[in-house]
Structure formats: structure tokens, C-alpha cells
Amino acid sequence: MVSPARASSEIAKTSLKEGAAAPQSGLFGRLRGVLPAVAEHVRRVVPAFARQSATAPAPAGRAGPVPQPHADGRTNAGDRRRAKPITRRQLAAVAFGLCVLLPTLASFLYLAFVAVPQFRSEARFVVRGNLKDVAGSGSAVGNLPALSNYQEARLVLEYTRSHAIIDAMQKQLDLRRLFGITARDPVFGLAQGASEEMLLDYWNRQVKASLEVVSGVITLDVYAFSPESAAFLGAAILRQLEAVANELTVRNRGDRVLQAETEERAAFTDLALVRTEVEAFRNAQGTVNPVLSAAVSYAMIGKLRDQRAALNTDLSTARARLMEDSPVVRALKERLRSLDEKIEALDTELLGRSDKQPGTSSNLLASAELEVRRGLAEQRLRQAETELLDARLQQAEKQVYILTFMSPTMLTEKNFPNPLSQTMAVFATLFACWAVVALCIEGIYARSH
Q1: Largest CA distance in the chain
Q2: Which residues on neighbouring strands pair with residue 401, listed in sequence order?
Q3: Nearest-CA neighbor of 400 among 132, 219, 193?
Q4: In sequence order, which ranges of 138-193 are alpha helices (DSSP H)?
């Protein structure tokens, strides 16, 4: 068995001898003299070193078959592979390369050379309308300023994420053509023949709206594959949101006007019926105002009774001085009889002759009831007319509207992709996943061995 150190010294000596014997014809000549000797010594050393490795004992804790050399001293390649199994570190390195490095490299190459640049257009607006106080007047925070109606703002925000706005925008723009660039960017473009659900998901990825609760400001971010497309789409979305807000206002106020008109018609009908009953009652009684007529009748009865009392006094005085058949006494008796007839006629008119023919006094309750009903009907009609006028005035105005204080921008600098930062994010994510899996496998191996 020849040691490696001795083999090296023999190679050096042989090289010197061959170099001295060889003609000094230059560098190539000297190399031609040295190379054959080096090849000869390598042919002698390798079989000896292989035999030494075959007879060496296996390391502690690693038992396995020892490859046996052939008759000519060479070892089979399969024996050498079985003699050196893959370690856990090598397997982890291979997994790291396949699961982390290779996808990271592919992501970087795609983002840098294949992905189509995307541009962002930003717009900001608020929803104005009814103002509501944050707290009641009796609370300690009652002096806080009024904020925009949160319900209308949330309604507009949710509308930007629904199928309704996609259906409305499809009537104005061809969204599938605007986002469908799968021929150049199959990953970040809208797939050809995408369903409505896929279009909605892609829309929510490209169009994002956020609401600041305190200020009520809504920020609209639109992403497209050109600055002009992003700005144009953002302006179209704002116009659609304004139309929706106005439609909501008109619908609410239209309902109010409809209710006011219905109430006004009902009040007018009720008043017409009451007036018809009052007119029929007056015609039956033969008077315009039964209460006033009754008051006049009672006043006349009182005056007639006073006159009758005076006539009785005069008649008593005349009977004391004159005969019963004197003209003065007879005249007084005639006048007294006439007063009695008038008083009886007025009493009959007021009290009535019987239950079937009631007088004026018995009909005063029905007359008073009709007058009360007429007054209530007139008051109801006045209130309904006032409500209808207010509803029509409010309908002519725009109560809930969108105030845009930042129009959609058109930036020439791309917002996506950023190959370096996004590749680092992909690497960090994949590395974390690989590390977790590697630690789990290492823990399982440690427990099992």
C-alpha cells in the first residue's frame, strides 16, 4: 500500500527527471514530458487507496454493507452510491432549493419580465346629507360636531363591492376587455370566459374603497393596466355612485310625496262627506245654524214672557177699575192670548211635539257633532296640504349627494409590480413555511430515534 505523501514525492522526482531528459523546447515541451509520468503514478495510487477505504472500519452508529472491490481493484459505481447515503442536511438543502429558492427565482423572473405594469388612480369623496348628532343634548359630549350620516356612506361603500355596480358598469364599459390581458399576463389578468363570480372577485381586487369613520371620507383606489384606463374607470365609478345616491334620495322622497298625496285625498274625501251631512241636516231643519236659531228662539220666548207678565199686570189693574166686558179688558185678554200662542209655538219648535217630531233643542247634539266632525276634517285637510307642499319642496332639492374633493388621479409611475420587494415577500413566506415543516420533521425524527 502506497501512501498519498509518498506518491506525491515520487511524482515530483519523476517529473524532474523527465524534465531534465526532455529537450528544453519551451513550456509545452516540458508539459508533454511531465503528464505521462503523472498519469502513471495516479494509475498506481488510486487502486491502492480504494483498497484502503474498503478495508477501513465503518463509523460508529452507521452500519452498512462495505463495497467489495473487483478483481482488478476497481469498485462498482452502484457500490459507491450505496456506501454514501443522503444525509438529512442534504435532503433539507434540496427541499430548500426546490420549495424556496426555485419558486422565489420564478416569481422574480415573472414579475420582472412577464407581468404587465399596473397603475393606480385615487379619488376621495364624502357623502353629504342628513346630519345627526353624535350624542344627546343632555350628555357630556353633546357639544361634539355633527357627523355625516354613516348609513348612507356604508351603503355607497357596499355598493362598490356588489354585483349591482358591475352590471351598471358593463352597460358603459367592457370590463372583460379592459381587464382581459391573459395573453400577456396570465396570472394578474382576467381570465378569458370568466364567470360572474370570478369577475366580481377580480373587480374587488382591482377596485378598493375604504371609509374613515370619524371624518366620513371614502377613498377609492382603482388599478388598471394603463394610467388612462385607471383614471377613466375611476371617473365612471364616481358618476355611477352619484346616480345611485340621487336615485336613493328621489325614491325616499317620492314615497313621502306619495304618502302625502294619499293623505290629502283621504282628508278631502272625509271633509266632503261631512259637509254633505251638514247640508242635509240643515235642509231638514230649515236653518243654516241650528244653534243660533235655538238661541234666537230662547231670546224671543224670554221677551214674550216678559211682555205676558206686563199684560197680566195691566189686566189685573183694568179688572179692578172696569167691568169684565169692557173694551179695555177684552183688548188686554186678546193680546195676552196672542202672546200665549206665540210662546207655545216657540216652545213646540224648540222642544218638539213628540219623539217622532223632535224640536230644535233635541237636534242641537247632532248639529254639534256634525260641526265638530267638520272642524276636524278641515284641520286634517290643512295638515295634509302642508305636508304635501313640504314633500314636494324637498323632492325638488338634492338631499343625499356625493361631494368629490379629489378627482381620480392619473399617475404615470407604475404601482405594480415591484419585483424586488414582492420577491422578498415571497421568499420570506416560503422560507417561513419551509422552516416550520423542517422543524416538525426534525421533531418527529428526534422522538422516533
Answers
A1: 207
A2: 128
A3: 132
A4: 150-159, 163-170, 175-179
pLDDT along the chain (449 residues), means of 10: 44 41 40 49 45 44 47 51 68 91 95 93 86 39 48 89 93 89 86 90 94 91 94 95 83 77 92 89 71 74 85 84 83 86 77 57 72 90 91 72 90 89 95 93 84
- Residue 411 phi/psi, 5-degree rounding, is -90, 135
Neighbour-count burial of 6, counting CB atoms closer than 10 A to its CB (0-12 exposed, 13-18 middle, 19+ buried): exposed
- The Cα–Cα gap between 227 and 345 comes to 102
Q: Residue 123 CB: number of other CB atoms within 10 A?
A: 21
Interatomic CA distance for residues 380 and 264, integer angstroms: 8
Of 175, 157, 158, 155, the C-alpha closest to 167 is 175
Angle between helices 227-285 and 163-170 (to 10 degrees): 100
Q: Is 115 within 8 Å of 210 (Cβ atoms)?
A: no
What span, in angstroms and rounded, lies between the C-alpha atoms of 175 and 215?
A: 32
User: For residue 442, what is the enclosing H or E element?
Assistant: helix 419-448
Single-letter code of the amino acid located at 349: E
Which residues are registered as beta bridge partners of 147? Answer: 132
pLDDT in tens, 158-179: 999 999 999 999 998 889 888 9
**SS3 state of residue 416:** strand
Q: pTM above the 0.90 mark? A: no
Question: Contact, 156 vs 218, CB < 8 A?
Answer: yes
Angle at 49 between CA 43 and CA 54, to 5 degrees: 130
pLDDT digits (tens, 9 = 90+) for 310-327: 888 888 888 888 888 888
Count how many residues are written for the chain: 449
CB 242 within 8 A of CB 402: yes
